[in-house]
Design goal:
The complex is a heterodimer of chains A (662) and B (154). With 662 residues, chain A is an alpha+beta fold. Chain A has helices at 2-30, 33-36, 38-62, 69-74, 81-86, 92-112, 119-143, 168-183, 185-196, 203-233, 244-269, 273-296, 309-333, 348-379, 389-410, 420-424, 427-445, 450-474, 480-485, 489-514, 618-635, 638-653; strands at 385-387, 516-522, 527-530, 533-544, 548-559, 562-567, 570-574, 580-583, 585-587, 593-601, 607-614. In chain A, a hairpin with a 2-residue loop joins strand 3 (527-530) and strand 4 (533-544). The longest helix of chain A has 32 residues, at 348-379. A five-stranded mixed barrel of chain B has the order 2-4-5-7-6. Helix content of chain B is 32%, strand content 29%. The chains are: A alpha+beta (662), B alpha+beta (154). The A-B interface holds A 162, 164, 234-235, 297-298, 300, 302-307, 361, 365, 368-369, 372-373, 376, 382-388, 390-391, 394-395, 519-521, 577, 579-582, 597, 599-600, 602-603, 608, 610 and B 27, 30-31, 34-35, 37-42, 60, 72, 74-77, 97-99, 101-102, 110, 112, 127-138, 141.
Chain lengths: 662, 154
């Protein structure tokens, strides 16, 4: 009964979203303010019914209702309750229900936290978002209904959730990632609304900035978490594979990163107007493309959901309509978009232009590598190829190096004209200092490698420049430390975000260049030497978990005769699906993770054992979290909130009281 | 229209455009080169047995792991197994390292590596799947190719 109600709620949500698209449109056409404002209340309705629907599916999971086909395929009575809960989004249908839930959440937020917008403009934004939602709901209801029953002959036991997904990472990773993916629909809707209303001043950039920052921050955290999950859960010790689906999340991130920078330039200086609109369109298009790549199964990927041509086709049509429609609108209106101000020599605009070029080109080359197998197959009579990680490394790294250099160099630049001498001043000393630090880090890691020295130097150079920028802001003032704390949060956000990039760069180069990886056969009592460590294999013992049996290995790690830790990696056999899972065990140290995983049992109690040492690999995720947090920090900046309050005040009292804040 | 000496700002614009074109051309060349040196062609068991595969070139192969064909060395991580399309075409694969969790007899497999001699594939990487219900498109294609090849025989 509850399941049918859930299905019914989904239909109602779809209908309400349709109304949310149609009614305000009619209102705009007729000039009827009452109809125009229906979008706001309908957003609450859509959200409410999607939540109800989501709760119904969750209920079906928690009560082990195996008459629901989706539950039967992805759950089991032995599954611990937290995984029964997260199994709701463990496969295609449920995860798309989560997608629509996230979409309705963003719509609700935009409807209720958009005070500075005029009623008309808000209505247009909501119409665009409602239009997208209708597409999502129809896709869900027509091709991937999670509430489908298998009556009357339903199984008495479910097939279980894929063991890889029975993990804390899966509980959090998809919601974060979807908040990012779908969140990019907000700047998209703002851009379309401003094209549609011909309101092509810079205000749309100002309004969509906090939303874009929020979506980008979620996307950053989602990708970071995914990388961390792959590292500890897949049992290969890798943290990035250039897999098609990873690329599908990375491309929108690159575009969104370009977008948050060009939005800033558009808002502050009125430049790149049409380019920013295009980026907003492409950011969301890449999100949809990602959904297509993951859910159609056309590319071989470690992430692929089961292949379904019909779903793939439906998404492809949706993408075609969205991209085609928005580009048509763009071409009709873009001639209006002239930048008001010209470029000033060596102003921050120039660096943002370079940033945008490098980021979009890297997104483009990743796109080429990701889609090339499809193009090749079409052109060569179905011949299958794959594009290996060496391609991506070969094209991506040369693009990131100049980006890092420019990032370091440009931190102290100002909007409009910056005297080049001011930028260059002191860089020699900073560069010398960071070279010393960079070489120092390389020596600490134990290898005077050119890559490590170079990247570490760049990372320190960027960090020192950030420090100099902070110093410039408080220099010559009284009580500099207190002054530092009083800097606007937007400044801190910028500093922390870019510092995060430096941290990630250092983590990547040391994890890539300094990792020690050994796979070997170990019988009980065998000792292996990896780097400066000795690892002794004591054997395995059988352990029983809630829904699996496990061989738990015991390995003692010694350094210079001293016992550092006992690691207990597992090889699990999940009872319902009989599938085998590797559970790595990791000793986290500053000098480098010691990563141990069991391969397969060999003869006479011996096992295949994988031992990796990964120096500073944690910095990759620490940096990623810093970058993500910086996005949220910028949202808390008073200037975003105060501006809307001020506007209201201005309108009601017709007098400005900005001086207090600006 | 009047043709005459170009105005200075136009000449500058022209140079800018030319510069950008050259840059774009270089970038594209570099991109295609990187792409072409890093693609791995996929071959099915039928293509392997009919001698279509190049020796000593990095490629990918795939099919089903033949039941009862897995042989392990007793002192190292060396493992050998046969890959088949279940329609008569089979070849050997050698691999040293840890096999993915979902590697099993009678399951689909995709391997990257090279043929060192006729019919012996030295794999560097064996592809794993998140989901065992999921069949790699390449393997599905290889099985189909095997089916149509064998049904064409009398």
């Amino acid at each position: 009964m509850i399941v049918e109600l859930g299905h019914f709620c989904l239909v109602i949500a779809c209908v309400l979203a349709g109304l949310q698209m149609v009614l305000p449109s009619v209102g705009l056409f007729r000039g009827n303010l009452l109809l125009i404002n229906t979008g706001r209340s309908l957003a609450s309705g859509v959200f409410l019914f999607t939540v109800l629907s989501f709760c119904a599916l969750t209920y079906a999971f928690l009560t082990n209702d195996f008459s629901v086909a989706y539950v039967a395929r992805n759950s089991n009575t032995l599954l611990p309750w937290q995984y029964q809960f997260s199994a709701v989004w463990g496969a295609h249908e449920g995860s798309f229900l989560l997608w629509t839930l996230v979409m309705s959440t963003w719509t609700l937020l935009v409807a209720n936290f958009s005070k500075p917008l005029s009623d008309e403009f808000r209505a247009r934004v909501l119409i665009v978002m409602a239009g997208l939602s209708v597409g999502f709901y129809l896709f869900l209801l027509l091709t991937s209904n999670p509430f489908e029953r298998t009556l009357p002959f339903y199984p008495s036991e479910g097939a279980d959730l894929n063991p890889l997904l029975q993990d804390f990472g899966l509980i959090v990773h998809p919601p974060l990632l979807y908040m990012g993916y779908v969140g990019l629909a907000v700047p998209f809707a703002f851009a379309i609304a401003s094209l549609w209303s011909n309101q092509l001043d810079v205000s749309w950039a100002r309004w969509s900035r906090p939303w874009t920052n929020a979506a980008w921050a979620f996307l950053t955290l989602g990708i970071t978490l995914g990388s961390w999950w792959a590292y500890y859960e897949l049992g290969w010790g890798g943290w990035w594979f250039w897999d098609a689906v990873e690329n599908a999340s990375f491309m929108p991130w690159l575009i969104a990163t370009a977008l948050i920078h060009s939005l800033a330039a558009t808002e502050k200086r009125g430049v790149f107007k049409s380019w920013t609109v295009l980026l907003a369109v492409f950011g969301f298009s890449f999100s949809l493309l990602g959904a297509f790549l993951v859910r159609s199964g056309i590319l071989t990927s470690v992430h692929a959901f089961a292949v379904d041509a019909e779903r793939g086709q439906a998404i492809l049509w949706f993408i075609t309509i969205v991209i085609g429609g928005s580009l048509t609108l763009y071409s009709l209106r873009a001639w209006n978009l002239k930048s008001v101000v010209g470029f000033d020599k060596s102003g921050r605009e120039n660096f943002i232009l370079a940033n945008n070029l490098l980021l979009t080109i890297s997104a483009a080359v990743i796109l080429v590598g990701t889609l090339y197998p499809l193009a090749y197959e079409a052109l060569n009579d179905g011949a299958k190829i794959s594009v290996g990680p060496p391609y991506f490394n070969a094209v991506f790294v040369p693009l990131m190096l100049p980006l890092l250099v420019l990032m370091a160099f440009s931190q102290r630049s100002q909007w409009a004209a910056t005297d080049l001498r001011v930028l260059v001043y002191g860089q020699g000393r900073l560069l010398a200092g960071s070279t010393v630090l960079g070489v120092g880090v390389a020596l600490l890691l134990g290898a005077l490698d050119l890559w490590i020295c170079g990247i570490a130097t760049l990372a320190f150079w960027l960090t020192l420049n950030l420090g100099m920028e902070l110093r410039r802001r408080v220099k010559g003032r009284q009580a500099p430390w207190r002054r530092l704390l009083k800097q606007p949060l937007a400044v801190w956000s910028m500093v922390i975000g870019h510092f995060g990039i430096a941290v990630v760069a250092l983590g990547i180069v040391s994890a890539v260049m300094m990792s020690e990886e050994t796979d070997l056969r170990m019988a009980p009592g065998d000792t292996a030497t990896v780097g400066d460590l000795e690892v002794k294999f004591l054997g395995t013992e059988a352990v029983q978990g809630p829904n699996y049996l496990s061989d738990q290995g015991r390995l003692e790690v010694y350094r210079a005769g001293q016992l550092l830790a006992v690691l207990q990696p597992e090889k699990r056999r999940y009872l319902a699906s009989q599938s085998i899972m590797t559970e790595a065990d990791i000793l986290v140290r500053f000098a480098g993770d010691i990563y141990v995983a069991l391969g397969e049992p060999l003869s006479e109690g011996a096992w295949a054992v994988r031992i990796h040492i990964k120096p500073l690999v944690r910095l990759i995720w620490i940096g990623g979290v810093l970058i993500g947090l910086s996005g949220f920090l910028s949202l808390l900046d008073r200037r975003y909130r105060v501006r809307s309050v001020l506007r209201e005040k201005k309108i009601s009292e017709r007098q400005g009281s900005e001086t207090a804040y600006v | 229209m009047k043709f005459g000496p170009m105005k200075a700002h136009r000449r500058a614009r022209l140079l800018q455009i030319l510069f950008l074109l050259v840059l774009a051309g270089l970038a594209t060349t570099f991109l295609l080169q990187a792409l072409n040196s890093n693609i791995n062609l996929f071959y099915s068991p039928v293509q392997v047995t009919s001698g279509e595969v190049p020796l000593g070139q990095r490629i990918r192969v795939g099919g089903m792991v033949e039941a009862g064909s897995i042989i392990r060395a007793s002192d190292s991580l060396k493992v050998g197994f046969n890959v088949t399309d279940l329609a008569g075409s089979t070849f050997e694969v050698n691999y040293t390292g840890i096999l993915p969790d979902l590697f099993r007899e009678g399951q689909g497999v995709v391997a990257t590596g090279e043929f060192t001699r006729d019919g012996l594939f030295e794999a560097e990487e064996i592809l794993a799947k998140h989901d065992e219900k999921y069949m790699p498109p390449e393997v599905a294609m290889a099985l189909e190719a095997g089916d149509s090849a064998s049904s064409a025989l009398p």
